[in-house]
Amino acid sequence: MTCAIVGLGLMGGSFGLATKKYFSKIVGIDHNKSHQEDAIKLGLVDEIVELKDLENVDVIVLAIPIRGIISVLKELSKLNLKDDVLIIDFGSTKESIIKECPKNIRRNLVASHPMAGTEYSGPAAAIEDLYKNKVMVVCNIEESGDIQVKRAFDIYNFLEMKIKIMDAKEHDRHAAFISHMPHIVSFSIANAVLNQEDKEHIVTLAAGGFRDMSRLAKSNPAMWRDIFKENKKNLLDSIEAFKDELKRAKDLIENEKWDELYEWMKKGNELHKIM
Amino acid sequence: MTCAIVGLGLMGGSFGLATKKYFSKIVGIDHNKSHQEDAIKLGLVDEIVELKDLENVDVIVLAIPIRGIISVLKELSKLNLKDDVLIIDFGSTKESIIKECPKNIRRNLVASHPMAGTEYSGPAAAIEDLYKNKVMVVCNIEESGDIQVKRAFDIYNFLEMKIKIMDAKEHDRHAAFISHMPHIVSFSIANAVLNQEDKEHIVTLAAGGFRDMSRLAKSNPAMWRDIFKENKKNLLDSIEAFKDELKRAKDLIENEKWDELYEWMKKGNELHKIM
Fold it and tell me: Does the keyword Iron apply (chains A, B) (predicted)?
C-alpha cells in the first residue's frame, strides 16, 4: 500500500517516520522548498511529488492547517483518485472540514484528530513515537465508507493509538476546553511576565512550574491563529468558564476567605484522580 | 559539622538526602509521627530529635510553612544555641519572616528560597537531586553574619546551586508573578474543566499541553493557602496583570482581529528567547 503525506511538518513528518514499515512507499507534498529538502534529508518520505501525482496512491494524509485541508480537499475532488482511496485529515477542529468536504469524496475522508504534538514545528521536529499510546479522535464515521474506516483504524492500530469515536460538534467543544483555551492562558502568562519591567530578573527565577505554564506560549502563532479563528465560539465559551474560576479565586483572596480558597483548590486536586 | 532539619517533607527530606556527605550527622524534627518514621526508613536523617536538643548543632534548616518558620524562630531565640549557628529558612515568601525574626538570632539567619520543587509533598517525595542546578535566592544578606553567609553559600555550592542575592520585598513580588499566580491559573483551569458536565470525556482527550497546564493543580492546598495569605497584595497584582492579557486576547478573538492576535502571540514567543 502506498501513502502520500501533504504537509511535512511535525505531524506529517512524524507520521512518515512511524509508518515506514507499514507502507511500501511514502511520497510527500509541501509548498515550502526547504521543508521538501529537509523531509528527504531526514528520511521522512521517499520522494517529493505534487497533488496531480496522487491518482494512484492508496492513502492520503492531510497534515496542514484547517483552511489548507479544505482547499486541498477541493482540489482532490477534481482528480481521478482511486475509488477506494482513504483520505485522512489531521485538522485540529473538525466541523468545518466535514461540512466543506466535497460530496464526491466525503466517503473517502476519515476525519481524525490525533491528541499528540509538541510545542515545536517543522520537519526537524518530527519524532517516530509522537503518536504511540496517544488518542486518535475520529469524527462522524457514519458518513465515511466502511472500507476507508477499516483501513484508517488498521493504520491507527499499527501506530498503537487509542481510537475514540466522536461527533464533530462535540469534538470541537471539548478541544476548546482542553487544548485551545489552555494555549490562550499560556500566552497570557508569557505576556503578563514580559510586560514586567525587569523581565530578566523574573525569568532567572523561573522554576519547573513556570516553565510548564509558559511552554505552550512557544507554539506557532500562525497555526494557532487559524485554529482560534475556526473554533471562535467554543473558544470564547471556554475562556469565559476559565475566567469565572479565576474571578472566584481572586474574590476569595481579596476577601481573605482562606478556608473557601482551600476548598476551591482541593476541588482542583480532584482532576488528577480521574486523569 | 552537624545539621538539624525541621520539617521532613519534600524540601527538608531532599536536603537531607543531598547533604549526607557534607554533614557528619543530620538530625530531624517533625511534629507528624508518620513523617518521622518515614524519614528514618527512607534514610533522610539519622535520628529524630526535638527543638530543645538543637543547642549543639551547627546548621538548622527550617523547611516548613511560613507561619511555622516564624514560630520556630521565636522558640529558637529562647534556646542556648551555639553563637555561630547558621539558621536557614526555605520559606516561599521572605519579607514577613525577616521582619518577625527575633533580633538576637537575626545575624544567624540566612533567609533563602530555593527555586525548586515538584507537585508532590511528604518524605516519600524527597529526591536527592532536587536542588542541583537550581537557583537559591538569598535575601537581605547585609543583615546576616559574615560567617553564617559564608557557611550557607558553601552548602549551596556543595548542592551545585546558583546563588542569587535579592531584596526580600523584590523577591516576594517576583515570586508572585512567576510562581504564585501560575498556581492560581492552573487551579482555575482544573476547576473550569471539572465544572463541565462530561468531565471523563474531556479528560480522555487530554494531551501533553493540558497535562502541563493542570499539573500545578495537584499541589497541596494547605501549603498554597498559606503562601497566598502571606503574599496577598503581590498575588492580587499579578493576577490583575494576567487578567489584562487574557482580556486583550478575548477582545481580539471576539472582534476577529486575527492579525493583532497573531502579533500578541508572537510577543509571547519572545519569553523563550530569554529563558
Answer: no
